[in-house]
Amino acid sequence: MHPYWQTQQQPSRTPTGLTVLWALVPLFTCGFGSPFVIGHAAVKRRSPLLIVSTGVYALNVVIFIIGIASYENVDDIPSWLDGIMTVGLFVNWLGGLGQALFVRAKVFGHDVPAGPVPPQPVMPQPHYPPGPVQRPVPPPPGPVSVFPPPPPRPGVNTGPRPPMAGHHTGPRPPWQEAATRPGVHGPAEPGNRPERLGPYRVIGNLGKGGQGAVYLGVSPTGQKVAIKVLHAHIAGDKDAQARFLREAEAARRVAPFSTARVLDVNVTGDLTYVVSEYVDGQSLEQLVKEKGPRPEDGLIRLALATSGALAAIHKAGIVHRDFKPSNVLIGSDGPRVIDFGIAKALDQTSATASQIMGTPAYMSPEQLSGEAVGPRTDVFSWAATMIFAATGRAAFGEDTIPAILNRVINHQPDLSALPASMRELARSCLDKRAENRPAMSEVMLAIVH
Question: Confidence class of residue 176 from pLDDT cuts 50, 70 and 90?
Fold first, then answer.
């Protein structure tokens, strides 16, 4: 473009990642965040339609809260009110998500202009001889032009152009050889997973979840290992990295019986992964779904092994915080508890405040209410997991999240499917007050006796 002409400066924009996160708040909060997100959009856009939508979403939230608060037992709610509450929740959840995604670009100024922005003249354009100009040419002899020489454009660097931010001119790290960077955009598919992660050779995929991707790898000594590549919640945050390392190093000190040992931890600005012992077996969740509830003898062996594993974890100063059927692997040598110590580190470094660390059906009342979490939180989750192993059903139901949370906080599950020797023990473990529950070592001894 000619030096005398410049395009109109565009206003600064909010990073796209933050705007997408803003639009997904209704999804993360099951619709309870829709009034706040759409209300923010209404203020920004001054749109009557958005104001009306905000009122509708807020009314649905109020009706739901009043309905839950008015009945101690969720089963006592009249069918007509239950229908209104359910429809309102889904309107907030799906309607709020769709509307937020639709207005996101307009709220944050990400509109695409209908045509090119017209150039803004700074001063009159001088007359130049026709033809391409490759370099400055001295003016021809004769009368001096009435136009002054073109001023240099401020901020323009005429020297060599520096490399773009984030562009690496050296060798690519091994994990960047894959088409998808693990831990940032989600787990890589089998066709584009990384070939190596540090000193570990990746040979397969084990699964994926909310925390990241899990790969099957081989150590330099030839041992098979499980490598969990975490999402980049802690990249670039030195304090968060230090907290994660302390928690993961504590996990390495856990006694090895009935647990999948943590072998290695890597935390850098670009990549975070945890290497643990590979257990060749399926999870308790998969086993129960495929083969049904565990028989009494198998259930007691499972209870003894998992309670001993949690007791060892607590002795190392760690709270699991996410004990559930999918975190118990049934190996050839018995049950193994996995993912201990990682949930707390992730909880401390999570960049999304609206996310709940844990699975609601297996969380304790103090976790749901935001109170202090300690070893007896795992005791509650352990008892709920034993009920699942004995019945094939979640102890507090598998329907809507609000209904599950209400049962966890206010109701006792059915213990009739447990062996008679375990019912009173499970009832004490499921006490709503953490201080009334036994320690995990006491649970293990009660099973033995």
Answer: very low
Indicate which residue of 82, 237, 322, 414 is catalytic. Answer: 322
Residues 87 and 79 sit within 8 Å (Cβ to Cβ): no
The tens digit of pLDDT for each residue in 203-259 reads 998 877 656 788 999 999 999 999 888 766 554 566 666 766 776 777 777 877 778
Confidence of residue 18 (pLDDT cuts 50, 70, 90): confident
- Give the integer Cα–Cα distance in Å for 217 and 206: 10
Amino acid at site 259: T
Burial of 285 by CB count in 10 Å (0-12 exposed, 13-18 middle, 19+ buried)?
middle
Q: What is the pTM of this model?
A: 0.54
Look at residues 446, 418, 417, 412 and name the one whose alpha carbon lies nearest to residue 432: 412
When pLDDT is cut at 50, 70 and 90, the band that residue 89 belongs to is confident
The torsion angles phi and psi of 80, rounded to 5 degrees, stand at: -65, -40
CA-closest candidate to residue 34, choices 106, 101, 107, 105: 101
Six-digit token string for 274: 């945890």
Q: Please enumerate in sequence order all residues whose Cβ is within 8 A of that of 110, keeping only pairs 6 or more positions apart, or say none.
A: 13, 16, 19, 104
Active site residue 333: no
Beta-carbon neighbour count of residue 309 at 10 Å?
A: 29
DSSP state of 246: H
Query: If we measure between CA atoms, which residue out of 430, 439, 326 comes closest to residue 381?
Result: 430
